[in-house]
């Protein structure tokens, strides 16, 4: 493929209960096709602050980019891309695609099928004002079946041990913008997803008029099927 300056940089944003290493297979595949890739570290503290951080990452990228979000990362890119003329496309991977005011928890509960709630455990963490907040983990023994049912067990167990907790406030925060209204969108839907029901994914993708691909995969599709994920990103980057 061309290595001209107009070739977009791919910016990957992970979601809750994951970290940037969840994109490793996707990064390898994209780099093999000569794409520049940034796998950003999503803070997972609050939707507005997380989006502001990712927006600052975009500001540091030279030229156009394609912004990709997994899970809660979809909410983050939806807000972060607002007003960013360099974002050529938004790609949602088993992700939330909120409208203005909608939260991840609201969208999860819009349709039946998620079993995430009973598998999580809360923990408290200190806030700068001296109060405490609540963050959530998936219990390690339940993580493979809940999050990564089609990932090799040994890999899923490593993912469970290294998962990044998400602040409950981040999942409760409503989106302040919906960049998909102005930016072409693509969505990979996972029909065996136990975190975000596929009915919810379909509803959001259809509302956003996203180019949509469905696969019989778990929520951890970027780990289980990096080639499929990369194919959709390359399609978005080629437009």
From TrEMBL:
Gene Ontology MF terms in the entry: catalytic activity
Domain AB hydrolase-1: residue ranges: 10-229
InterPro entries recorded: AB_hydrolase_1, AB_hydrolase_fold, Sec-Metab_Biosynth_Hydrolase
Top-level lineage group: Bacteria
SUPFAM superfamilies referenced in this protein's UniProt entry, alphabetically: alpha/beta-Hydrolases (SSF53474)
Pfam family, one: Abhydrolase_6
Gene3D superfamilies: alpha/beta hydrolase (3.40.50.1820)
UniProt-recorded name of the protein: Pimeloyl-ACP methyl ester carboxylesterase
Naturally occurring in which organism (per UniProt): Nocardia tenerifensis
């Amino acid at each position: 493929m061309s290595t001209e300056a107009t070739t977009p940089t791919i910016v990957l944003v992970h979601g809750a209960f994951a970290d940037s290493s969840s994109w490793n297979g996707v990064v390898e595949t994209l780099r093999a096709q000569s794409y520049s890739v940034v796998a950003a570290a999503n803070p997972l503290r609050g939707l507005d602050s997380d989006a502001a951080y990712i927006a600052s990452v975009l500001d540091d990228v030279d030229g156009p980019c394609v912004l990709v979000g997994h899970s809660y990362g979809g909410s983050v890119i939806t807000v972060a891309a607002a007003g960013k003329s360099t974002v050529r496309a938004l790609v949602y991977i088993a992700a939330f695609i909120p409208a203005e005011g909608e939260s991840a928890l609201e969208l999860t509960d819009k349709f039946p099928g998620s079993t995430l709630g009973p598998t999580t455990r809360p923990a408290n963490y200190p806030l700068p004002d001296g109060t405490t907040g609540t963050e959530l983990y998936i219990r390690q023994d339940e993580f493979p079946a809940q999050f990564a049912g089609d990932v090799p067990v040994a890999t899923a167990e490593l993912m469970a041990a290294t998962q990044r907790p998400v602040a409950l406030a981040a999942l409760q925060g409503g989106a302040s913008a919906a960049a998909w209204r102005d930016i072409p969108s693509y969505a990979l839907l996972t029909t065996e997803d136990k975190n975000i029901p596929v009915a919810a994914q379909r509803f959001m993708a259809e509302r956003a008029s996203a180019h949509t691909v469905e696969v019989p995969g778990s929520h951890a599709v970027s780990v289980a099927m990096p080639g499929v994920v990369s194919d959709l990103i390359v399609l978005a980057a080629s437009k």
